[in-house]
């Protein structure tokens, strides 16, 4: 398998291949990462790896109140992830290609990136100004009956969208075309479903596309049945994830 060493950006969320990732970068360790990426010529990919946090904080703990976006205290790049960052992070993540890195007057960055390839973390290095990781690229095996499963997932996903829009008292746009490639379908649906990070992480690291689609089909059917009986949906993410400006 192909390996590479890339800057590492831990988040309290899961990035899937093909999905867009907007970032508001204000901490010095991540500012340093963006300054380094800007050294890459514009005609070459500006890549970094995104991994979901298993145990820790994407924003380093500060004193009383919210993190100060303008403060630049001297901190380890592994701040918030314990003595061994590798153990604090999920083992499978996604490479992100930064299409836009725009520095603001205050030194923070506005970043727009897209997920490209799944990777497995082999090691994490905290010796520099930001985390870097040795990564192994993960191939996407279609598995058995991926095409038929994708069709079933799309049908269930449309029903899920309708129920979800009704539970949240929102209108649903039906004009958008959904993809038919099984791999793309599996990642789009995984990203669009309202689920916690462990569930999305499980979908990201599925052994093949068909396995991911089977899991999604079960989740969609279960969630649609639940939504049908509820007048509204609880904002469960507010109690399960810490506040973050990234």
UniProtKB/TrEMBL annotation:
It holds the Pfam family LON_substr_bdg. It comes from the Bacteria. Residues 61-80 are annotated as: Disordered. Residues 3-224 form the Lon N-terminal domain. InterPro entries: Lon_prtase_N, Lon_prtase_N_sf, PUA-like_sf. This is LON peptidase substrate-binding domain-containing protein. It comes from Streptomyces pyxinicus.
């Amino acid at each position: 398998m192909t390996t590479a060493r890339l800057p590492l950006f831990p988040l309290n969320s899961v990035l899937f291949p093909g999905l867009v990732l907007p970032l508001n970068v204000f901490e010095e360790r991540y500012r340093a990462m963006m300054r380094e990426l800007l050294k890459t010529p514009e005609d070459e990919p500006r890549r970094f790896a995104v991994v979901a946090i298993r145990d820790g904080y994407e924003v380093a703990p500060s004193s009383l109140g919210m993190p100060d976006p303008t403060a630049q205290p001297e901190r380890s790049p592994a701040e918030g992830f314990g003595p061994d960052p590798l153990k604090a992070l999920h083992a499978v993540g996604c490479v992100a290609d930064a299409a836009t890195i725009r520095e603001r007057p205050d030194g923070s960055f506005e970043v727009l990136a897209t997920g490209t390839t799944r990777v497995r973390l082999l090691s994490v290095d905290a010796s520099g100004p930001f985390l870097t990781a040795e990564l192994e690229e993960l191939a996407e095996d279609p598995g058995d009956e991926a095409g038929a499963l994708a069709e079933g997932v799309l049908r269930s996903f449309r029903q899920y969208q309708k129920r979800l829009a009704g539970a949240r008292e929102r209108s649903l746009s039906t004009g958008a075309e959904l993809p038919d490639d099984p791999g793309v379908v599996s990642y789009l649906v995984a990203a669009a479903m309202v689920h916690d990070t462990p569930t999305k992480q499980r979908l990201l690291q599925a052994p093949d596309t068909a396995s991911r689609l089977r899991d999604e089909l079960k989740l969609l059917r279960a969630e649609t049945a639940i939504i049908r009986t509820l007048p509204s949906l609880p904002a469960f993410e507010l109690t399960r994830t810490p506040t973050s400006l990234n």
